[in-house]
C-alpha cells in the first residue's frame, strides 16, 4: 500500500513538472534532471527511506501583496528558509505535502495556493546533521495567507516569522535571495499571462 501511494506521488510530480515551463533556463534544466531522477527511482525518489537522495516539498508563503515571505529558522540547517519537508504516503499530491508541511511548521491553516504548478526546484547537499539524507530534491509551491496571520513556532524550528522580500535576514542559504527572486518572477509571469 505504501509503495503504491509513493508511486502515485511520483506520477503526480512527473505530471506537475512536465506541465511547468520555468521562466529561468537554469530552472528548466534542473526540472529536466528532476524528471530523470523520478523516472529512474519512482517510489524510492519520493520516500524519506527510499535512499539518501529523495524529493521534498516546500512552501513559499507570502502576504497577499507578495511583499512579505514567511521563513522558519531551521534547527538542523541553522538558517532562515521557506517551510517544508518530506512528503508522506498520506499526501495525495506533492503540492498537498507542501501545504501540510506549511501548516505543521507555521501553525497557519488559512493558506491558499497561488498556482497549481511548482514555482521552484532546488537540489541541495545536506550536512551530517541530517542523518542518512545526503541530498534533497526540493519542489517549491507558492501560497498566500492573511497579512496579519501570526505564525506559531513548531518543534522543527527555532523561530518562524515574516520578512520583507527585499530585506531578508543575513542567515539564509547563500542562494536563497536569488531563489526567492525567481519565485516572485514566476508568480509575476503567472499573473500577466
Elements, N to C (H/E) = HHHEEEEHEEEEH
The low-pLDDT segments are none
CATH-level-2 architecture: Alpha-Beta Complex
Approximate strand percentage: 25-35%
Name the CATH homologous superfamily: Nucleoside Triphosphate Pyrophosphohydrolase
Name of the top-level CATH class: Alpha Beta
Q: What's the number of helices?
A: 5
**Count of beta strands:** 8
Give the end-to-end Cα distance, rounded to a whole number of Å: 40 Å
CATH topology (fold) name: Nucleoside Triphosphate Pyrophosphohydrolase
The structural domain count equals 1
What helical percentage do the residues reach? Answer: 25-40%
Radius of gyration, Cα only, in angstroms? Answer: 16 Å
Can you tell me the overall shape? Answer: globular
Structural class, by secondary structure, is: alpha+beta
Q: Average pLDDT across residues?
A: 91
What summary fits the major beta sheet? 8 strands, mixed
Notes on the protein architecture:
By secondary structure, this protein is an alpha+beta fold. It has a single domain (2-192), classed as Nucleoside Triphosphate Pyrophosphohydrolase. 36% of the residues lie in helices and 26% in strands. It has five helices and eight strands. The protein has helices spanning 2-19, 25-41, 43-46, 94-106, 176-192, and strands at 53-62, 68-74, 79-81, 83-86, 112-113, 120-125, 135-144, 157-164. Strands 1, 2, 3, 4, 5, 6, 7 and 8 form an eight-stranded mixed sheet that branches. Strand 2 (68-74) and strand 3 (79-81) form a beta hairpin. The radius of gyration is 16 Å and the shape is globular. The model has no long low-confidence stretch (mean pLDDT 91).
